[in-house]
Specification:
Blueprint: H1 17-31, H2 37-43, H3 48-56, H4 66-72, H5 78-91, H6 95-108, H7 116-125, H8 128-135, H9 145-151, H10 158-170, E1 174-176, E2 182-184, H11 193-217, H12 234-257
Antiparallel strand pairs: 1-2
Length: 283
């Protein structure tokens, strides 16, 4: 069964410029049959073949063309700026750039109501949000934020704990039982691949900073830091990636069977290159 075209589109509902383009095109085409790739191509000084490859994901839209394409879809003022930023976000190369453009997109959204994506973005920016969610699986929390905040290592402020519990409750990651005690739910945070990558990189960066501090602040008998510096082929590298994936699955299965949890832990698996395959050209 063919997917039904949307009746209307609102640019601020999108975090992927191609998804907006496809939906906006369907709406315009249904209302004006003469609206075509050729018409849009003339607006942005390209050809319909190039435009087709942009729509299909085979190539990116040149940011210089974003203004003309946005006007072809009758976007103006704040909508136009949002679309241009959306294109830049979709093509950002570094995590810093992706964060900057994603934050700008959230600021440009016209609604004053905080969106689900914004709450998810916040969840992954602070290490103690996922930590508190897991802590609620350890202790029966009934509203004692002072106790909850001090149980984390390092401890956080009471207001930070309140904000964290409020956020994870709004995201549906915890719920209250009939006695008013918070319990974990099975819900997972999901979003588009590009956005999800930003979320997870923020969390990995925050946890890496925390791990660096733990070297000095956590007693050796309470932690384990080890590592290997080894030379490998690309084939062996991907084989080890599969081993690490299976290891994570095994650990998750073990944790799900543990009925006597009493503490929250963080396991960082870090595996990355320390050299190039050949000497880069000097510039």
């Amino acid at each position: 069964m063919a997917e039904r075209a949307p009746d209307s589109v609102r640019i601020f509902d999108y975090l992927d410029y191609r998804e907006f383009m496809k939906d906006a095109y369907q709406v315009k085409k249904r209302k004006a049959p003469n609206f075509s790739y050729r018409y849009i191509a003339r607006k942005i000084a390209t050809n319909s073949g190039t435009l087709s490859r942009i729509f299909s994901g085979q190539r990116h839209l040149d940011p210089k063309m974003a203004n003309g394409l946005a006007r072809a879809f009758n976007l103006h003022d704040g909508e136009l700026e949002y679309f241009e930023t959306l294109v830049l976000f979709g093509q950002a190369k570094t995590h810093i750039e992706k964060n900057l453009f994603l934050e700008k997109l959230f600021r440009l959204r016209s609604s004053r109501v905080i969106t689900l994506e914004e709450r998810q973005f916040e969840f992954y920016r602070k290490w103690y949000y996922p930590a508190i969610r897991e802590l609620l699986n350890v202790v029966p929390f009934d509203g004692n934020y002072a106790k909850l905040s001090k149980m984390l290592r390092p401890a956080i402020g009471v207001q930070e704990a309140k904000k964290a519990v409020k956020l994870i409750y709004e995201l549906g990651l915890v719920e209250k039982d009939k006695d008013g005690i918070y319990r974990l739910t099975e819900k997972l945070i999901s979003s588009g691949d590009n956005v999800q990558a930003v979320f997870m990189t923020n969390l990995h960066a925050a946890m890496a900073d925390l791990a660096a501090k733990a070297i000095n602040e956590v007693a050796p008998e309470e932690r384990d830091f080890s590592g290997l510096t080894i030379s490998l082929s690309s084939v062996a590298f991907y084989q080890i990636l599969e081993i690490l994936k299976q290891t994570r699955r095994t650990i998750m299965e073990q944790s799900s069977k543990d009925s006597k949890v009493d503490k929250v832990y963080r396991l960082n698996l870090q595996f990355f290159p320390l050299s190039y395959e050949s000497v880069p050209e000097l510039t």
